[in-house]
Amino acid sequence: MRQDTPIQGSGLLFPLLIAVGTHLLGFWLLWFGWQQASTISEQRMPKINPEDIISAVAVQQDPIEAMRQKQRAQDAAKAKARAEQERRRQQELQRQAEARKQALIRQREEEARQKELERKRQEAAAKREADRKAAEEAKKQAELKRQQQLKAEQAKKAGEARKQEEIRKREAQLAAAKEQKAALAAAEAERKRKEAIEAEKRSLQAALDEEEAFLSQLEDRERLASMQMLIKSYVEQNWSRPPTARKGMQAVLKIELLPTGEVKSVNVIESSKDSAFDRSAEQAVYRAGPFRELQDLKPHQRDAFRSFNLVFKPEDIQ
């Protein structure tokens, strides 16, 4: 900061000196012009001898009037001289003003010329810079285009290579697909053959199962019917005929047995309309139990006698 101060002061001093000198020169020119104009005016004014005027006037007028006329003549001459001097001064001022105006015009024209030169110089510099940038841009674009062409060629080669590789892979996939298809066809044929065998086995097994089920059902029906007949026989054998029993009387009993054959409960679900007959039927069931033959049945056959209905209708009622 301390080094910049002298440089700035010396830079302002020179324009200041020029401005002061210019003003002093202008004042001197005005003063010199005015002096010249005064000198020229005095030289050009006619010199009048006062004695000649006085003597000439004295012949015709009185002295006082002559003095007055002389004074008026002198005043008129001085006024004319001053007017001429003022006219010349005004002309000089106009000349100087015109000179300053022309100088100012020339200065402005010079400044305009300098500005125009500076503008043209800047335009030329801008054009050179634009041309340089355009050349660099063209070079850059050319290099970019070359790089793009190189990349396009490389991409094309890579694309051709990928295409050939895809063709090779596709051919390999087709060959593998054909082999797989043949293997699948063979596997499908084998599967169908095995399925046919399995279907035949299932069909045969179903037939055997159906026959076995039929035989089992037949056996179950026979065993159940035999067991029901046995229970009915045991109940009728243990029945004590009440006095009110008549031929054709019957009652439907619901009997519940334990897996051991013991009687769990007996209930009349359809009455014979004779309470003594109904009670005698219930007592006959209790006396007939337990039914030990129930244990000889298969488990699913025994389940049928956990709860079943028995139509009690003795055959020996007269």
Q: Provide the low-confidence segments as ranges.
A: none
| Helix-and-strand structural type | mainly alpha
Q: How much helix is in the residues?
A: over 70%
Which term fits the overall shape? elongated
Largest sheet: 3 strands, antiparallel
Radius of gyration computed on alpha carbons? 79 Å
Distance between the termini: 155 Å
What's the order of the H and E elements? HHHEEHHE
Strands of the widest sheet, in order across it, are 2-1-3
Beta-strand share of residues: 5-15%
- Helical run tally: 5
In total, the number of strands is 3
- On the 0 to 100 scale, the average pLDDT is 83
Characterization of the model:
The protein has about 325 residues and is mostly helical. About 75% of the residues lie in helices and about 5% in strands. The protein contains five helices and three strands, in the order H-H-H-E-E-H-H-E. It starts with a helix and ends in a 6-residue tail after the last strand. About 5% of the residues are buried.
Keywords:
318 residues, mainly alpha, Fusion Protein Consisting Of Minor Coat Protein, Glycine Rich Linker, Tola, And A His Tag, Chain: A, Domain 2, single chain, 3 strands, 77% helix, three-stranded antiparallel β-sheet
Please give a quick description of this structure.
The protein is mainly α.
List the helices and strands and how they pair.
Layout: H1 4-44, H2 50-60, H3 63-237, E1 251-257, E2 263-270, H4 275-288, H5 299-302, E3 307-312
Antiparallel strand pairs: 1-2, 1-3
Helix pairs in contact: 1-3, 2-3, 3-4
